[in-house]
Amino acid sequence: MLGIGFYFMKQNKSKEDYYVGGRGMSAGHIGLSVVATDVGGGFSIGLGGLGFVMGLSGSWMLFTGLLGAWISAVVLIPKIYPIAKKHQFLTFPQSLAFRYNAKVALVAGFISLVGYIGFTSSQILAGAKLASATFPSISIFNAILIMGVIAIVYTAVGGIKAVIYTDTIQWIILMAGLIGIGIPIGYIHIGGWEAISSTLPSSFMSLTNITFVQFFNWIITIVPVWFVGMSLYQRIYACKDEKTAKKAWRIAGLFEWPIMAFMGIALGLFARVGYEQGMFTEIGYAPGVVMDSELGLPLFLRSILPVGLMGLMLSAYFSAIMSTADSCLMAASGNFSTDILGFFKGKQKYDTIKHSQIITLFIGAVAVLIATHMQNVLELMLYSYAFMVSGLLVPVLGMLLLKKPSSLAAMAAMIGGGTTTLVLILTQVKLPYELDANFFGIVVSALAFAVFQSVGTKRVTA
Questions:
Q1: So what's the pLDDT on residue 460?
Q2: Residue 127: its pLDDT value, please?
Q3: Which positions make up the signal peptide (predicted)?
Q4: What are the residue ranges in the chain where pLDDT is below 50?
Q5: Which of 58, 201, 374, 461 gives a 20 to 30 Å CA spacing to 381?
Q6: CA 264, CA 251: separation in Å to the nearest integer?
Q7: How many CB atoms lie within 10 A of CB 178?
Q8: What is the pTM of this model?
């Protein structure tokens, strides 16, 4: 991975090469990069945790990824790609600046930056938890440093091309590890279908072991990310044409669900069987002892795989983790360099590859620092999603659906929605009907947008 990064360091000639790959990438590489980024470490480890807790119904989380990918291919790409190509956009907020103004883009840049730093941290933490649970001699802190440094260095030096090509390789490694090692050996080791059916409640093998509210929370948190995700806009811009972008998004959706969804869930379900069989007793987790559900999968792999195969399987999961961490880091770097510094200091001063590399290294260091202070991967990832969605979804919909959207309405929606979600997350307020904080953030954002859009329309009419 480091080698690919340094190879593309020599290939990049401009900031456009660094952030959008010269706008000439193919559907195959982009599609695999998109799904590797979206599924990645958080969902790989997180899906294992869901499989451990609820069984096959946890796969519905990635069904939201299929929905998001295919809806955005039909609704978003046809509207955004032609404009982005014509005006040479590098970041998502630049599309908002085109329909609103530069101040709206600045606030969007801040929201996206914070969200993607949190997302990068969640991926690094995912890798650290996997490494630490598998190799007890490595502390979570040291594992965070190892994972973080490697992903940050190849991303910083190689830019988006390094990210996309490493994503393709990492996704192939992950698929090979799951299909060739983890799933077949895990299935045989626990005793096959007979052991699964006799050990676990029937609800674990059902697709309806989920409440409507839980599925609704996943939908409103994950589907909108396909409309506000900076890493996804970078890949739309990197495609050689609109047709390529749509094809890439269709490929990504199919890989998300059912392919990756059920493979990730299956391994978590196998881990639960192993736990109930007493497989983790010597490690300190006898049946009935409370344990972190996200540790089930790495402990299971540690228990069943011999030396060699264990290393190959870990490389598969590390690949998934880094494929997301690098993309999120690249997105955050683009936001900081283009949307924030570009606004305050002018474009020319920070228009070099060297400045972009330094910014990427700095943001990566911040993400590593945050990862050392967090515990739950899926929680941190979903919080980051929620903050971005509640702040950015409504202005994006206004940009796509309205002829003359109001800049003031967009500003009020971003600040109102993002602040509401952040406050609810930080205060841990118990919300009615178990709805996600993101839902209330979106509602506040939509109301603020509607009020200020209405005021702006009345003024224009007058």
A1: 47
A2: 81
A3: none
A4: 460, 462
A5: 201
A6: 18
A7: 23
A8: 0.88
